[in-house]
Amino acid sequence: MTYFIEEGNIVLTEPVFDLDQTLDCGQAFRWRRLLGGSYAGYAGNHFLHIGARSGAVVFFDTSEEDFLGLWAPYFDLATDYEALKACFCADETMRAACAYAGGLRLLRQDPWEALISFILSQNNNIQRIKGIIERLCELFGGRFPAPGELAALNDQALAPLRAGFRTRYLQDAAKQVTDGAVDLDAVAAAPLDQARAMLMQICGVGEKVADCVLLYGFYRTDAFPKDVWMKRVMERFYPGGLPACALRHAGIAQQYLFHYIRTCTSIEGTR
DNA sequence: CGCCAGGACGCCC
DNA sequence: GGGCGTCATGGC
Questions:
Q1: Looking at the whole model, is its pTM more than 0.85?
Q2: Residue A25 burial (C-beta neighbours within 10 Å; 0-12, 13-18, 19+)
Q3: What is the spatial distance between Cα A104 and Cα A75, in angstroms, rounded to a whole number?
Q4: pLDDT tens digit string along A169-189?
Q5: How far apart are CA A20 and CA A176, in angstroms?
Q6: Active site positions of A, annotated
Q7: Cβ A255 to strand B below 7 Å
């Protein structure tokens, strides 16, 4: 990782990544694309304005302390994605996905925020998920609520979210995390299967949502969420299962494949 | 208008 | 274990 400081901005020259592929690919829902292609958004309750400039990524108005302590971990800057992609490229489909979405990075999000986000994601589309989360934060003055704060809201208070049948799932998640029935620290420490089972104790958390929470919120890169798009990928390209080169970091491979199948218009017959 | 969305759940067999 | 209808909302 190499960067320099310029007028209060952090200019990251290595590694370089793609903001659209990373921030608008359905793994996080609190980033807004601005005119000119920069992004403004939040990780937890930390605000960031980030942009691209001639082969570098610029973290606007960011202290070195925040960059190193918050944003470098969030953008997974310590992981060598070039090495990962070189490994993935042993497989033809993975090679195409990496060529198409090679600037993507996995975001290491807050566990609680990821839990709520992906509960809301079920049978929903990305634009509307963003809207519901935005309205949720508006209830708390723009902040993402802590578990106890969310648990304190009844149906009537949550009605403005227009989250539909997912509202009671939010309430159950907030209640169980608040009273300790689901301990997110224990989830973090548990083996994958046990961690998944813990999360699935929450009403509205099935296998797919649990795997999303584990991957994006707990950085369990061996978790492999299978949504409708990934089922299409598996059916079309991997009827016999994932290739060996993708298994070690299946979650990250999944993110390349997801973005590839969902947005690459040259893939016919799957959309 | 109908179809779909980063699904989960209850019920049926 | 697998198949199917239902759930609330809105973008297209």
A1: yes
A2: buried
A3: 10
A4: 999 999 999 999 999 999 999
A5: 35
A6: 208
A7: yes
